[in-house]
């Protein structure tokens, strides 16, 4: 039996286009794989209407109980509902296909020598906003992060 991870590695591009069209309910003109991730596949989707989206096909392993798609999508939804709009807006998810659609934000990965003081300040502001959400409705429903540690020892 083929695992979902194996299937996602060899997922034909036609299936990606069909998934995007079905999830969005829109005709897809163009889609391109966005490289740079490790576990997931991300595609830039261009609809006939001119709208752009990011389709993310999540890594899945039957030996790993984490629900990556729901955790990420629901976290982004909580952030958007609380005014944090410096992340891609969550549009739709299909848990059965392990696929989610987000707003597409064009950008680039910064190398170490491109990071400036302004970027560090933006990161600190984002972390401060995250900390401020811990008492908001729905925030306590999230599981602990996979690598969560509560001791400095």
Q: How is this structure best described in words?
A:
By secondary structure, the chain is α+β, with helices and mostly antiparallel strands. It is built from four helices and five strands, in the order ααβββαββα. It has a five-stranded antiparallel β-sheet with strand order 1-2-3-5-4, with helices on both faces. The longest helix is centred in the C-terminal third of the chain and has 16 residues, at 117-132. It is globular.
Beta-strand proportion: 15-25%
Mean pLDDT: 84
Query: Any idea what the shape is?
Result: globular
Order of the strands making up the biggest sheet: 1-2-3-5-4
Q: Order of helices and strands, N to C? A: HHEEEHEEH
Please report the number of helical segments.
4
Radius of gyration: 17 Å
Q: Can you give the helix content as a percent range?
A: 25-40%
Task: Summarize, please.
The protein has 153 residues and is an alpha+beta fold. It contains four helices and five strands; from the N terminus they run H-H-E-E-E-H-E-E-H.
SSE blueprint and pairings:
Blueprint (H helix, E strand, L loop, with lengths): L3 H6 L3 H12 L3 E7 L6 E7 L4 E6 L10 H14 L8 E5 L4 E5 L13 H16 L21
Antiparallel strand pairs: 1-2, 2-3, 3-5, 4-5
């Amino acid at each position: 039996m083929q695992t979902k991870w194996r299937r996602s590695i060899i997922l034909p591009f036609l299936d990606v286009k069909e998934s995007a069209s079905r999830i969005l309910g829109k005709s897809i003109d163009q889609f391109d794989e966005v490289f740079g991730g490790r576990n997931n596949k991300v595609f830039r989707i261009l609809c006939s209407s001119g709208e752009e989206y990011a389709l993310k096909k999540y890594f899945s392993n039957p030996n790993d109980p984490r629900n990556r798609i729901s955790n990420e999508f629901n976290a982004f939804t909580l952030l958007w509902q609380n005014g944090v709009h410096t992340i891609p807006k969550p549009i739709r998810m299909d848990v059965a296909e392990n696929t989610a659609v987000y707003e597409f934000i064009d950008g680039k990965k910064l190398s170490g020598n491109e990071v400036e003081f302004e970027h560090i300040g933006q990161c600190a502001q984002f972390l401060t906003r995250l900390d401020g959400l811990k008492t908001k409705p729905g925030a306590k429903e999230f599981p602990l992060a996979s690598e969560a540690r509560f001791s400095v020892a």
